[in-house]
Specification:
With 328 residues, the protein is an alpha/beta fold. The chain has two domains: 197 residues, Rossmann fold; 116 residues, UDP-galactose 4-epimerase, domain 1, CATH 3.90.25.10. The protein is built from ten helices and 14 strands. Helix 1 crosses helix 7, helix 2 crosses helix 4 and helix 4 packs parallel to helix 5. It starts with a strand and ends in a 9-residue tail after the last helix. The site of nicotinamide-adenine-dinucleotide has 27 residues, from helix 1, helix 4, strand 5 and strand 7.
Length: 328
C-alpha cells in the first residue's frame, strides 16, 4: 500500500510525508515545486515533479499501487485569490475534480483533503463547530468549499470516501523542516524574520477589533499535530470509517499582540511592530472547536501553548534563515 501525497514538498505536506515514512508507509509525492522545495521531501519518498492539471495520474496510481491520496496541493493566499480567481478555481477546485475522477477510474477510494477555516467566512460565534454556516469570503475559501462539495458528490455517486480537514493557522517547525513561503504572509514567520534582521518591522492590521487587546485573535496549531491528524484520518478511512469534515485547531485563541510578545520573549529581539489599518475581509476572531477530531480520531494536540509553537518555529528559522535556500 502506497500513499500519494500531492503538494508533499510544501510546508504541511512535507511534515506529513515525514510522519508517514516514520511509521513505515511507502509514499509518492506529486508536486510541481511552484511553492514547495525539493529539499523538503525526505529521500525515502519518491518525488514526481509534475503539474497536477496534466500529470499522468492513471499511470501513477497503477505503477505505485496507490491505495489512498492525501491532497495538499493548492494555491494558498487569500489576498492573491481575490486578484487571480481563475488561478485559484483552476488550481484548487478543477484540479481536485481531476484528481478525484482519476481516483474513481483507478478504484482508489480514500482521500484526505486539506480544507480551511476560510470556508466559514466571518464566524457567527466562536469556537466554530463543523456545522457552522459556510460563507467563504474569498475565491480561496470558495475554491476549497467547492472542492469539499465535489468530494461529497463523489461519495454519493461512486463511494470515494474522504476526510476534509479544515485547518486553522498551521504554525511551528522542527530543526530540519519548517515554513519557507515566498512571499511570506503568515504572522509567526514574519515576526521571526524581523528578529533575524530580514525585515525592519512588521505591521499589525487593526488595533480596534472587538477583542480583549484590540488585535485579531487566531487559533494556532502546530505542524506536528497537523501531521498526526492526517495519519489518523488515513487510518480512519482504511478501517472503513465514514466520510468526515473536521476542524483542526487548538481551541485556544491568541491575539496578534500576544503572538508578537511571545516572539519577543523567544528571540530576545524587540521586534518593532507598526499599527496599520484593518485589512478588508479579516474576521476579528477565528477559534476552532476540534472536539469532533478529538472524539472521532482520538487526536490530541501536543503543542497546545503558543510559546512552544513559536519556539519550534524559531529553531527552524534561526538555523535556516533562508529556509531551504532554493529561492534566494
Ligand atoms: N498553512 C496554513 O495555515 C493552511 C491553513 C488552511 C489550509 N491550508 C491548506 O493546506 C495545504 C498546504 O498548505 P501549505 O501551507 O503547506 O502550502 P504550501 O504552498 O507550502 O504547499 C502547497 C504545495 O502544493 C504544490 N502545488 C501547488 N499547486 C500545484 C499543482 N497544480 N500541481 C502540483 N503541485 C502543486 C506547491 O508547490 C507546494 O509544494 C493547502 O491546500 C492549503 O490551502 C493551509
Amino acid at each position: 500500500m502506497t500513499v500519494l501525497v500531492t503538494g508533499g514538498a510544501g510546508y504541511i505536506g512535507s511534515f506529513t510525508v515525514a510522519a508517514l515514512l516514520a511509521r513505515g508507509e511507502r509514499v509518492v509525492v506529486l508536486d510541481n515545486l511552484s511553492a514547495g522545495h525539493r529539499a523538503a521531501v525526505p529521500p525515502e519518498a519518491s518525488l514526481i515533479v509534475a503539474e497536477l492539471a496534466d500529470a499522468d495520474l492513471a499511470g501513477i496510481f497503477e505503477t505505485h499501487s496507490i491505495d489512498a491520496v492525501i491532497h495538499f496541493a493548492a494555491l494558498t493566499s487569500v489576498p492573491e485569490s481575490v486578484q487571480k480567481p481563475y488561478s485559484y478555481f483552476h488550481n484548487n477546485t478543477a484540479n481536485t475534480l481531476r484528481l478525484v475522477e482519476a481516483m474513481r477510474q483507478a478504484g482508489v477510494d480514500k482521500i484526505v483533503f486539506s480544507s480551511t477555516a476560510a470556508v466559514y467566512g466571518e464566524p457567527q460565534s466562536n469556537p466554530i463547530t463543523e456545522d457552522h454556516p459556510k460563507n467563504p469570503q474569498s475565491p480561496y475559501g470558495q475554491s476549497k468549499y467547492f472542492s469539499e462539495q465535489i468530494l461529497a458528490a463523489f461519495l454519493v455517486a461512486h463511494g470515494v470516501r474522504h476526510v476534509a480537514l479544515r485547518y486553522f493557522n498551521a504554525s511551528g517547525g522542527a530543526i530540519d523542516r519548517g515554513e519557507d513561503h515566498t512571499p511570506e504572509t503568515h504572522l509567526i514567520p514574519i515576526a521571526l524574520q524581523v528578529a533575524l534582521g530580514q525585515r525592519k518591522s512588521m505591521s499589525i492590521f487593526g488595533t480596534d477589533w472587538p477583542t480583549p487587546d484590540g488585535t485579531c485573535v487566531r487559533d494556532y496549531i502546530h505542524i506536528a499535530d497537523l501531521a498526526d491528524a492526517h495519519l489518523r484520518a488515513l487510518d480512519h478511512l482504511r478501517s472503513g470509517g465514514a466520510s468526515l469534515q473536521l476542524n483542526l485547531g487548538n481551541g485556544a485563541g491568541y491575539s496578534v499582540a500576544e503572538v508578537i510578545a511571545a516572539a519577543r520573549r523567544v528571540t530576545g529581539h524587540a521586534i518593532p511592530a507598526v499599527e496599520a489599518p484593518r485589512r478588508a475581509g479579516d474576521p476579528s476572531t477565528l477559534v476552532a472547536s476540534s472536539e469532533a477530531a478529538r472524539r472521532i480520531l482520538g487526536w490530541q494536540p501536543k503543542f497546545a501553548d503558543l510559546e512552544s509553537i513559536v519556539e519550534s518555529a524559531w529553531r527552524w528559522h534561526h538555523a535556516h534563515p533562508h529556509g531551504y535556500g532554493d529561492r534566494t
